[in-house]
Write a structure and sequence with these properties.
The complex is a heterodimer of chains A (319) and B (100). Chain A is an all-alpha fold. Chain A has three domains: 1-71 and 110-163, no CATH class; 72-106, no CATH class; 165-288, no CATH class. In chain A, 69% of the residues lie in helices and 1% in strands. Chain A has helices at residues 2-28, 36-53, 55-67, 72-81, 88-105, 114-134, 145-153, 166-172, 175-202, 206-210, 212-234, 237-260, 267-282; strands at residues 155-156, 160-161. Chain A has a two-stranded antiparallel sheet. In chain A, a hairpin with a 3-residue loop joins β1 and β2. In chain A, α1 packs across α6 and α8 runs antiparallel to α9. Chain A is elongated and about 110 Å long. With 100 residues, chain B is an alpha+beta fold. Chain B has three helices and four strands; from the N terminus they run αβααβββ. In chain B, a hairpin with a 5-residue loop joins β3 (86-88) and β4 (94-98). Chain B is flat. The chains are: A mainly alpha (319), B alpha+beta (100). The A-B interface holds A 57, 60-61, 64, 95-96, 98-100, 102-104, 106, 108, 110-117, 196, 199-200, 204, 208, 211, 213, 216-217, 219-220, 223-224 and B 25-26, 29-38, 40-41, 65-66, 68-76. Chain A: Interacts with the Sec translocase complex via SecD. Specifically interacts with transmembrane segments of nascent integral membrane proteins during membrane integration.
Chain lengths: 319, 100
């Protein structure tokens, strides 16, 4: 458990530094250092800093997914080769070939795992920081005992303590806490559901929709709300604000991506092309030349060897 | 007897396998396909823990995740083949065949 604490130490230090920084800023701008609103704004600031730090990663990913358009013919050739073969081994072989093709071309449309995984310890670190502050314990860095006490005593609008969970709300029969927790959960469910739906219906290619992953995604779409309700029950309101703002950030970012830089071959990409074409028409420009949009060379695939024909005996030849 | 001992020896990695399998069933689909490699990071880690054990498996998996960043080329990246242990005599000399 000590190794774990050691690993979390730098993450918690940075989180505390950002939180305290924003708390000082909001206080300097005239906020009440003990009010819940100041702390909520600090948490919003934390989200903005963390998510903005990840923008280069997102942009990098989108640029490389655009570049992977160039090897679409190759990918389509592979897809054609395995068309209709749904058994596990064919799918595996297809994925292997596809990934190898991307590597050879030096582009890759996938986001990579590291950025996703980095976000988990950040959230965990935030939960720990807030829990410690809630118990009036000084943090690992800039969050002093004085600030921790301020946090643990802060309330939103004077009636909703930030350190309470939905479970606490029910235990103490505090209607405002229950109300705010339910409201936050509802907004989270809606934003999460909408983001996921947008990605799934608009920003995925037909090939992606064929994969077994897609069906699982569909089922999960309806399980997420239950998850969120459970987490609202367990986590303090302060962490829920973090989650909520983070969700909204993702939603906005996703909408921008779907509009401006959709996945090549997806519905959103077609919609974008149609939009651009209409715009060209309105401006009186000729439509983009059909010839430049090079037609896909249909790949003739020989899955079977041409069987040699036996020579016919002279007596049966026609000529 | 040796069978249950064997099961006990494999218990840690099976616990890790259970965690990874549930991650792959429940959390992973939320993100969609993101991994730049084949097999994906979680599948790689799963196989690494199955074949190499918990410690080496987690080590291999962690290194793989560090490799799976937006600047990586991606491609096919399988786990290193686990090499079976060679048999030894009682005195410690190595024999030419695999451990039974």
């Amino acid at each position: 458990m000590d190794i774990f604490a050691l690993l979390m130490w730098p993450i918690k230090w940075v989180i505390e530094a950002i939180l305290v920084g924003f708390h000082t800023l909001v206080t300097a701008l005239g906020g009440d250092p003990g009010s819940g609103l100041t702390w909520v704004l600090s948490i919003v600031g934390l989200v903005l800093v963390i998510r903005s730090a990840m923008i280069p990663l997102t942009v990098r990913q989108i640029v490389s997914s655009r570049k992977s358009l160039e090897i679409q013919p190759e990918i389509q050739r592979i897809q054609k080769k395995y068309k209709g073969k749904k058994d596990q081994f064919s799918r595996e072989a297809m994925q292997r070939e596809t990934m190898e093709a991307y590597r050879k071309a030096g582009t890759n449309p996938f986001a990579s795992c590291l950025p996703l995984l980095i976000q988990m310890p950040i959230f965990l670190g935030l939960v720990q920081v807030l829990t410690d502050a809630n118990n009036r314990m000084p943090g690992v860095g800039l969050l002093t005992e004085r600030l921790a006490t301020l946090f643990s005593e802060s309330t939103l609008f004077g009636v909703v303590p930030l350190h309470m969970t939905m479970a606490d709300g029910f235990a103490e029969g505090s209607l405002p806490v229950i109300g705010v927790a339910i409201l936050l959960t509802l907004i989270m469910v809606v934003t999460q559901f909408y983001t996921q739906l947008q990605i799934m219906t608009k920003n995925q290619t037909p090939a992606m929709k064929e994969s077994p992953m897609y069906k699982q995604q569909r089922i999960l779409l309806y399980i997420i709300p239950v998850f969120l309700l459970v987490s609202a029950w367990l986590f303090p309101l302060g962490t829920m604000f973090y989650w909520l703002v983070s969700n909204i950030y993702t939603l906005v970012q996703q909408l921008i991506i779907i509009n401006k830089l959709p996945t090549p071959g997806s519905e959103a990409a077609l919609a974008r092309e149609a939009r651009l074409a209409r715009k060209r028409q309105r401006m009186g420009l000729p439509p983009i030349d059909e010839a430049t949009a090079a037609e896909e060379p249909s790949v003739e695939l020989k899955t079977q060897r041409q069987q040699p024909r036996a020579k016919r005996p002279k007596s049966r030849r026609e000529d | 007897m040796s069978r249950s001992l064997q099961r006990l020896r494999l218990l840690p990695r099976n616990i890790c396998v259970a965690i990874l399998v549930s991650y792959r069933a429940v959390i992973s689909p939320l993100y969609g396909d993101v991994c730049r490699y084949y097999p994906s990071c979680s599948s790689y880690t799963l196989q690494a823990i199955q074949q190499h054990g918990v410690v080496r498996g987690i080590w291999l998996g962690a290194r793989r995740i560090l490799r799976c960043h937006p600047w990586a080329a991606g491609g096919v990246d399988d786990i290193p083949e686990p090499h079976p242990r060679l048999a030894t005599t009682r005195a410690g000399f190595v024999l030419a065949h695999k451990e039974q």
